[in-house]
């Protein structure tokens, strides 16, 4: 199935187009479902039932059509995300067909890894280049408190990804004061042993549930102090990479692991919108 716009030549190539910060516009994230099998404190409000009906999700044909149109505009890098994208029974078909679209150079996936182990190798064969995995904690009780899910399938998913030939596996951990602070050092050691890059992410106020509020915000600077005090992390940031935002970065003394945490560079007034419609100015928080 080919996009009518692509077929008719109505979409002009956008190769080399830049945003106001001189970043090349060639990367597109595709949300294939809003459903998730976990209920993270920082993401989903308690009792949330507002998912789209199954019939409202884009079909595999519609997703591929969208990718064809985007590739015709100059997009080259694509990421499959959700919700939890592996909940889709046709996820392997979607990945295979996207990777076959002319102009697509890379296809990546974001997942909580709970369903990854059984299909990790098939995803790699389908053309998925890398996987970003959320890892909230290594203590099963803390993990369950944050996500409502079980840790063991996640660890199995990470191990399956490591042995399936992905070009890159990255771990993400949201910083939560008073909830998973005790997990930061074990996660750093775990990532170092696994040889996977690790990124800590500051809490963003996506919900107003009371389960995860401003009192749980932990800044990058405080994370830096924790790392320096307990692991003698060597600071190599803040840095700036072309085509991305700035980040604070640290290195274990033996160079075994690079730890990153995104940071704003004072570019205007970044804002986030909560599910219930509220808005927060983020500059004061960082």
CATH topology of the largest domain: TIM Barrel
* Overall shape: globular
Low-confidence stretches: 1-14, 235-246, 264-286
Largest sheet: 10 strands, mixed
Count of helical regions = 8
How many domains, in number, for the residues? 2
Report the end-to-end length measured between terminal Cα atoms: 45 Å
The CATH superfamily title of the largest domain: Aldolase class I
- CATH C-level category of the largest domain: Alpha Beta
* Beta-strand fraction estimate: 15-25%
Work out the helicity level.
Answer: 25-40%
Oligomer: single chain
**How many β-strand runs?**
12
N-to-C SSE string, H for helix and E for strand: HEHEHEHEHHEHEHEEEEEE
Kindly provide the radius of gyration, computed on alpha-carbon positions and rounded to a whole number of angstroms. Answer: 19 Å
Secondary-structure content class? alpha/beta
Q: What would CATH call the architecture of the largest domain?
A: Alpha-Beta Barrel
Mean pLDDT score: 76
Question: How does this structure look, described?
Answer:
The protein is an alpha/beta fold and 286 residues long. The chain has two domains: 162 residues, Alpha-Beta Barrel (TIM Barrel), CATH 3.20.20; 84 residues, no CATH class. Helix content is 26%, strand content 19%. It is built from eight helices and twelve strands. Strands 1, 2, 3, 4, 5, 6, 7, 8, 9 and 10 form a ten-stranded mixed beta sheet that branches. α4 links the parallel β3 and β4.
């Amino acid at each position: 199935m080919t996009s009518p716009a692509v077929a008719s030549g109505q979409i002009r190539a956008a190769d080399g187009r830049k945003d106001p910060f001189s970043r090349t516009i060639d990367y597109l994230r595709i949300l294939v479902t809003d459903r998730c099998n976990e209920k993270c404190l920082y993401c989903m409000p308690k009792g949330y039932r507002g998912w789209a009906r199954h019939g409202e999700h884009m079909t595999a044909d519609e997703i591929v059509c969208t990718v064809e149109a985007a590739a015709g505009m100059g997009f080259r890098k694509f990421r499959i995300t959700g919700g939890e994208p592996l909940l889709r029974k046709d996820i392997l078909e979607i990945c295979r067909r996207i990777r076959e679209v002319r102009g697509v150079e890379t296809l990546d996936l974001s997942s909580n890894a709970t369903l990854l182990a059984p299909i990790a190798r098939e995803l790699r064969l389908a053309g998925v280049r890398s996987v970003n995995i959320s890892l909230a904690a290594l203590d099963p009780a803390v993990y369950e408190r944050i996500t409502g899910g079980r840790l063991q399938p996640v660890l199995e998913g990470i191990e399956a990804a490591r042995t399936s030939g992905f070009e890159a596996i990255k771990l993400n951990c949201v910083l939560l004061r008073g909830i998973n602070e005790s997990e930061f050092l074990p996660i750093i050691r775990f990532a170092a042993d696994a040889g996977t890059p690790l990124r800590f992410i500051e809490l963003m106020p996506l919900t107003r549930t009371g389960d995860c509020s401003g009192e749980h915000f932990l800044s990058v600077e405080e994370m830096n102090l924790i790392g320096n005090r307990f692991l003698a992390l060597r600071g190599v940031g803040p840095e700036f990479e072309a085509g991305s935002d700035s980040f604070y970065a640290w290195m274990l003394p033996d160079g075994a692991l690079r730890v990153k945490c995104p940071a704003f560079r004072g570019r205007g007034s970044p804002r986030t919108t909560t599910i219930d419609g509220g808005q927060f100015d983020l500059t004061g928080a960082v």
